[in-house]
């Protein structure tokens, strides 16, 4: 009896996932081809080489981003395993195609760490980044929101502030959510709805 219950639960889960997958295949997302301009430039500036695991997962993400249906991928790894550089390279693939990227983290400390690291990596390549959090002064917050809405900012990094109603993206193509398990489904959907079927990369 226990085996039968376990089988039914697993079958129901697999069928549910297949139905969700088929629905996602019917939606249209921007095709973000790997042009290699910014990604190659960043790889040349890094003081380290990507591991085989990073290269493998990056190829899979790059392939998903180039398809016409929205990517919904989970990138899982230990602290310090190099998820951030993979996320940065995925972001660059979207930016190369003229699309904006939003990176959301659950705490200001983590979001600010991402901002500092990615700003230092990407701004030398001529890519504008913005930091958005609830603790920003009103003047700085409004300025960041304006740059995001105009499309001047290609990479917006922040906390829950990213999916607030006053934040609008010019052309959002990719969403990256760090520690995605700390966000509710509705919160992730609120950020997704800032764009027209953007790709999604969840990290944990």
Model description:
The protein is an alpha/beta fold. It has 7 helices and 6 strands. It has helices at residues 2-25, 37-45, 52-65, 83-96, 108-122, 138-150, 185-192, and strands at residues 72-75, 100-104, 129-132, 155-158, 172-178, 199-203. It has a 6-stranded parallel beta sheet with strand order 1-6-5-2-4-3, sandwiched between helices. Strand 3, helix 6 (138-150) and strand 4 form a beta-alpha-beta unit. The chain is globular and about 60 Å long. The model has no long low-confidence stretch (mean pLDDT 88).
What is the approximate shape?
globular
Order the strands across the largest sheet as they lie in space.
1-6-5-2-4-3
What is the terminal-to-terminal distance? 35 Å
Work out the oligomeric state of the chains in this entry: single chain
Rg: 18 Å
The helix/strand order is HHHEHEHEHEEHE
The secondary-structure class comes to alpha/beta
Mean pLDDT score, rounded? 88
Q: Would you identify the regions where 5 or more consecutive residues have pLDDT less than 50? A: none
Q: Helix share of residues?
A: 40-55%
* Number of separate helices: 7
- Would you report the number of β strands? 6
Proportion of strand residues? 5-15%
Give the biggest beta sheet.
6 strands, parallel
Short description, anyone?
The protein is α/β, with parallel strands linked by helices and 204 residues long. The protein is built from 7 helices and 6 strands. Helix 2 (37-45) packs antiparallel against helix 4 (83-96) and helix 3 (52-65) runs parallel beside helix 4 (83-96).
């Amino acid at each position: 009896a226990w085996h039968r219950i376990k089988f039914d639960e697993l079958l129901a889960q697999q069928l549910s996932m297949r139905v969700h997958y088929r629905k996602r295949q019917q939606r249209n997302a921007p095709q973000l081809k790997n042009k290699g301009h910014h990604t190659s430039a960043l790889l040349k500036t890094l003081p380290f080489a990507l591991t085989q695991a990073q290269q493998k997962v990056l190829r899979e993400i790059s392939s998903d981003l180039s398809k016409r249906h929205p990517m919904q991928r989970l990138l899982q790894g230990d602290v310090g395993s190099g998820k951030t550089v993979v996320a940065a390279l995925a972001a660059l693939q979207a930016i190369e195609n003229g699309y904006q990227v939003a990176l959301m983290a659950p705490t200001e400390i983590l979001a600010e760490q991402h901002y500092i690291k990615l700003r230092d990596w990407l701004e030398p390549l001529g890519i504008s980044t913005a930091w958005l959090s609830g603790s920003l002064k009103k003047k700085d917050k409004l300025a960041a929101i304006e740059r995001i809405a105009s499309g001047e900012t290609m990479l917006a990094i922040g906390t829950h502030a990213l999916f607030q109603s006053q934040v609008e993206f010019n052309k959002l193509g990719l969403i990256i959510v760090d520690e995605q398990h700390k966000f509710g489904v509705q919160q992730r959907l609120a950020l997704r709805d800032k764009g027209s079927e953007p790709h999604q990369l969840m990290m944990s």
